[in-house]
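User: I've been trying to design a sequence by hand for this structure and keep getting stuck. Would you show me what you'd pick, starting by listing the structure so we're on the same page?

Assistant: Good idea, let's start from the same input. This is the structure you sent:
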C-alpha cells in the first residue's frame, strides 16, 4: 500500500532469507524466488517515489544467511530511504544487524497519526485498546474463488474490516490463511498485476 500524503510504502511479511533457509535444510528452492521479491520491492519504491518504507513485521525469516547479506547491500543502495520495522515473530536477529542496516525497529507497534501498525492483530490473544485504525500482517491472507464448474483457486488479498486491515505477504514464497469475510468487510484480491475488488 502507498500512503500518498506521507510518501510512505507499507508492506508486510517479506521473509528475507526464507528460501536460503530452505536450501540450507536441503530443500531445493531457487534463489530467483527471493531476487524477484527484492526486484518487485524496488519497482514499487521507484514507481511511487517513496521516501519511507514501513514493514509490518517479518522482514527476515530466521538466522543470518547469504540472502540477508544481499538485502544489506540492496539497503546501502537506498540509504536515503527511511525504513521502519514493526518487529514480527520471525524478526529474531541481533539488534546490531538492524542497526547496521539502518532500520528503525519498533517492538510492539508503530503509531502514526490515525493509524497503528502492528504485526499480528487477528491472532493476538490480547487485543490492544486503541482508537486508531490498525494495519497488520502475519497471517498472509488469501481468498478462495470458485468458478461455475467445480474449479476453485486462491489468491492473496488485502482484507479490510471497520477496525483493522490485514496486508498480504509481500513474499511470494509463503503459505496463506483464508480470511473469514463478514458483511461490510472489503477484500481486494491480487490477480497477477491487477487488484480485483470482491463484495462480501
Amino acid at each position: 500500500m502507498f500512503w500518498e500524503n506521507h510518501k510512505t510504502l507499507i508492506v508486510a511479511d517479506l521473509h528475507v532469507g526464507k528460501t536460503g533457509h530452505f536450501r540450507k535444510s536441503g530443500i531445493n528452492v531457487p534463489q530467483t524466488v527471493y531476487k524477484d521479491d527484492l526486484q518487485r520491492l524496488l519497482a514499487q519504491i521507484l514507481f511511487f517515489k517513496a521516501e519511507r518504507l514501513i514493514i509490518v513485521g517479518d522482514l527476515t525469516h530466521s538466522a543470518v544467511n547469504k540472502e540477508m547479506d544481499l538485502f544489506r547491500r540492496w539497503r546501502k543502495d537506498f540509504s536515503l530511504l527511511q525504513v521502519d520495522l514493526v518487529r514480527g515473530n520471525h524478526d529474531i536477529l541481533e539488534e546490531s544487524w538492524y542497526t547496521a542496516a539502518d532500520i528503525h525497529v519498533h517492538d510492539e507497534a508503530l503509531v502514526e497519526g490515525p493509524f497503528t501498525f502492528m504485526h499480528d492483530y487477528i491472532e493476538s490473544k490480547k487485543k490492544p485498546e486503541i482508537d486508531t485504525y490498525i494495519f497488520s500482517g502475519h497471517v498472509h491472507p488469501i481468498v478462495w474463488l470458485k468458478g461455475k464448474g467445480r474449479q476453485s483457486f486462491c489468491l492473496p488479498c488485502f482484507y479490510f474490516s471497520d477496525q483493522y486491515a490485514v496486508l498480504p505477504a509481500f513474499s511470494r514464497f509463503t503459505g496463506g490463511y483464508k480470511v473469514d469475510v463478514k458483511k461490510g468487510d472489503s477484500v481486494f484480491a491480487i490477480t497477477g498485476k491487477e487488484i480485483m475488488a470482491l463484495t462480501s
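That's my pick for every position. To get oriented when you compare it with your attempt: Residues 58 and 136 are 11 Å apart (CA to CA). Helices lie at 18-24, 32-48, 66-77, 95-100.
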